[in-house]
Design goal:
This protein has 530 residues and is α/β, with parallel strands linked by helices. It contains 18 helices and 19 strands. Bound molecules: 2-acetamido-2-deoxy-1-O-phosphono-alpha-D-galactopyranose (NG1) and zinc ion.
Length: 530
């Protein structure tokens, strides 16, 4: 059966045209778009097998997120909205790299090894970002899916988190929401409005927001919210798709450069937001009276959300376990604040959302954010059930009832399937509104340590291996001792290096007490890996 089932997969149009080896990394396959066509074709084939293996719909997203226009990529989304299971990342890498004449035997091998019933129907839900290369790559993926007789739902231009949302809704028969883009927009907009109520402003909170959409697909989604939230939240949209994707704008640019993106007017103390090219990351920023740039990144969002949930849990009298997950890139100032002031348990895991998501599942309510603004909140089913029942309890005091109802409602504002820039933004706006805070009050909770990130090009980045959630180098031998020596010269100094999973570079992170020293510390450590 197997060999003959795969007989139509050889398609000269999608033969391998490049010999370069490609790996399924932290964000799927990501590289120059012109060497990806055969990879997309093969991932179309693999998505069908994955769907058959799981007997559920699978997502396929064509995007290179915050990378510049010439790059593109693809990632597969598992049935419950998670990233592709680790063992299938290896299968994907192997399939992407086999010679054309080995394609049939490799597919046969996968189907036998994974015990796949080829008669089971398959569904692949596809989305793509706004890159010029995306339609060509879409055709390649479609050709792969059709070669194995899979069903396709092509959602067109959508954000990565919208795809995750539709995959989950589809596989839970609508229990998580309506499996359409309209379902996504109306769910979020309705709950945002109902939580906010008639008072659109509150205390120091003003309902005006400047949004940098990185000239990406998030601009389309932002326009929908701009329309549906008119008068409730006034979104001024910039980098709305008319300029170059991620070029001097977007969440990654703002986070790494710690500077205003192109085109955002520099208005004193006005809350500004940047999302990235596929709208799964979000950071806030503003310009103060002295024209100084202030960044409120993923760590800030995580702490704001953690403090909010902690307060609601305490007021409502619910004893659910709250936890926060970060990576080594989290600013030491935030970790200190979470542990010592908020007193919420905090865990550190390696870079990549799948690690954060997995760890966050251990808590009743798990909040996870990468410093770059990628993150969300997830709830155990039992926690949701407990909150719902508690809110119904008629013996509660008034304050307890209000807090439990807020907890119950805010869950619907969160895209639990994956970090979602726009849903996270609506959550931040909801919390700031509830507290009556402007951006300055939000920033007041703790001070970030001055920090710097550098990219270093090396011959083979994988010579560097790490342990302890990437905070220590194992190899090259002796490198960690050299880093320690440099770091010890700086007050509250911390620095680490690790190979990037999405670019051919080594990343250097450094932080210390004095802003005038942080560049020197980062350069000192970078010089050790050249
Ligand atoms: P790499 O290139 O492995 O550092 C980057 C981000 C990750 C994650 C992935 C996926 C940093 C330092 N790294 O990974 O957090 O978001 O991209 O997009 O921001
Ligand atoms: Zn992204």
């Amino acid at each position: 059966m197997e060999q003959s089932y795969f007989r139509d997969v050889v398609n000269a149009e999608y033969n391998r045209k490049h010999d370069e080896r490609i790996e399924y990394g932290t964000a799927g396959f990501r590289t120059k778009s012109d060497i990806l066509e055969h990879v997309l074709y093969r991932m179309g084939l693999l998505a069908v097998l994955r769907s058959k293996a799981k007997r559920a719909a699978i997502g396929l997203m064509i995007t290179a997120s915050h990378n510049l226009e010439p790059d593109n990529g693809i990632k597969l989304v598992d049935p419950a909205g998670e990233m592709l299971e680790a063992s299938w990342e290896t299968i994907a890498t192997n399939l992407a790299n086999v010679q054309d004449n080995e394609l049939i035997s490799r597919l046969t091998h996968i189907s036998t090894n994974e015990n796949i019933d080829l008669l089971v129907p398959a569904t692949v839900i596809i989305g793509r970002d706004t890159r010029r290369s995306s339609p060509i790559l879409l055709n390649a993926a479609l050709a792969g899916i059709r070669a194995l007789y899979g069903n396709v739902t092509d959602l067109g231009l959508i954000t990565t988190p919208q795809l995750h949302y539709v995959v989950v809704c589809t596989n839970t028969n609508g229990a998580y929401g309506n499996p359409t883009l309209q379902g996504y927009y109306s769910k979020l907009a309705a709950v945002f409005k109902s939580i906010r109520g008639a008072e659109t402003n509150n205390g120091m909170y003003m309902n005006v927001l400047q949004l940098d959409a990185a000239n990406g697909v998030g601009a389309i989604a932002a326009k929908e919210f701009q329309r549906s939230l008119e008068g409730v939240l006034n979104i001024r949209l910039f980098n709305d798709g008319s300029g170059n994707l991620n070029h001097m704008c977007g969440a990654d640019y703002v986070k790494v450069q710690q500077a205003l993106p192109l085109n955002i007017p520099s208005e004193t103390n006005v809350r500004c937001v940047s999302i990235d090219g596929d709208a799964d990351r979000v950071v806030y920023f503003y310009i103060d009276r002295a024209n100084k740039f202030h960044l409120l990144d993923g760590d800030r969002i995580a702490t704001l959300v953690a403090a909010y949930f902690k307060e609601l849990l305490e007021t409502s009298g619910l004893a659910l376990q709250l936890g926060l997950v970060q990576t080594a890139y989290a600013n030491g100032g935030s970790t200190n604040y979470i542990s010592n002031v908020l007193r919420v348990p905090v865990a550190c895991v390696p870079t990549g959302v799948k690690h954060l998501h997995k760890k966050a599942l251990e808590f009743d309510i798990g909040i996870y954010f990468e410093a770059n603004g990628h993150g969300t909140v997830i709830f155990k089913d039992i926690a949701k059930e407990t909150i719902k029942n508690h809110a119904k309890n008629e013996t509660l005091l008034a304050a307890q009832r209000v807090a439990s109802a807020k907890l119950r409602d805010v869950i619907d504002l969160i895209n639990e399937t994956v970090g979602d820039a726009l849903s996270d933004m609506l959550l931040v706006e909801t919390i700031l509104h509830a507290k009556g805070w402007n951006v300055i009050e939000w920033e007041r909770s703790y001070n970030d340590l001055p920090n710097k990130q550098l990219k270093v090009r090396v011959k083979d980045r994988n010579l560097i291996t790490t342990t302890n959630a990437e905070r220590h180098c194992l190899t090259p031998v002796g490198l960690q001792e050299e880093i320690d020596k440099i770091v010890s010269k700086y007050s509250r100094g911390r620095s680490f290096v690790r190979p990037s999973g999405t670019e051919d570079i080594v990343r250097v992170y450094a932080e210390c007490e004095n802003s005038s020293d942080v560049g020197k510390l980062a350069m000192g450590v970078a010089s050790l890996v050249y």
